[in-house]
Structures are given as C-alpha cells and as structure tokens.
Design goal:
The chain is an alpha+beta fold and 158 residues long. It is 26% helix and 37% strand. The chain has 2 helices and 5 strands, in the order H-E-H-E-E-E-E. Keywords: Signal.
Length: 158
Amino acid sequence: MNPWPYGADWPQAAETMGLHAFMLLLFISMPCFSNGDQPMEEELITERNIQPPGSSFKINPEGAEVQEVAKKAVEEFNTRSNSKKYFKLLNVTSAEAQVTNLITYKIDAVIGKTKCLKAQDTDVESCVLGKKRRMCKFEVTFNPRNDKYELLHSSCKK
C-alpha cells in the first residue's frame, strides 16, 4: 500500500506546486518594485480659474463666434428699427457669454448707418456708410437644440 494519499509522485508534485506559487507571487509583486509610472505633477487650481456654473464670462470680441452673433443681432435690429436705411456692424467693443441650457451673449458694439434704403433688397455689407454711428448693447440667445438665435434686447445711443 502506498503511504502517500495522492500517489507515489506526490512529494514531487507538491514541490512543483510550491515553485508555481512562488513564481505567481513574484509576478504579482513586480509592479511594486518597478519604477514604471511616475506620479504626474498636478496643476494647481486657483480661485480665478474656477467659474461657477451658469455665470457669465468675458469672451474675445474679435472672435469669429462673437462676430457672427453680432452680425445676426444687427440684422434683427435692422428688421425691428423704424429707420429707412440699414445699419451695419463696425466694431464689437466687448462681449460676454453665459452658458445654461442656452448660450446668452451680451455684446457692446458700434454700428453705422448706411446709405442703402431698406426698400431695396441689397447686401448690407456692400452698402456705403453714412456719418451716423451708434453705440449699441445687444443681448442674444443661441439655442443649440434647434440652432436658432434670438435677439432678446437691444439699446443704442447716438
């Protein structure tokens, strides 16, 4: 009768299993001894970099997005005004945006009265400027869900 319950080669099998267990333990602990990934230096966040959600922030008045919104505001201003002549955008002096479910733009701009009559169907950009200038404040919303702009408020001073 064999004294070993697992067969005659049980001591050899136990030795092999011990070696496998040792190798597995060594393999698992390798990341602890390696110098692989070093911790990255984190950028400090200062109070001036943090914008509360929904707060307004200044944007570049010369940026393409602001220029597009300002032109749309002037187009709508032309539709609503009682003037017989068109106005066109001359300069955006400052701009702010506020992002909620809509994007609200507050734009300060200089517009100029052109010599083109509204009764004529013309491209306002090609119209010759007259002498009158106005400082205007426009508030425009953009709804990204339907890709529509809306002029909420406009006020101009001579």
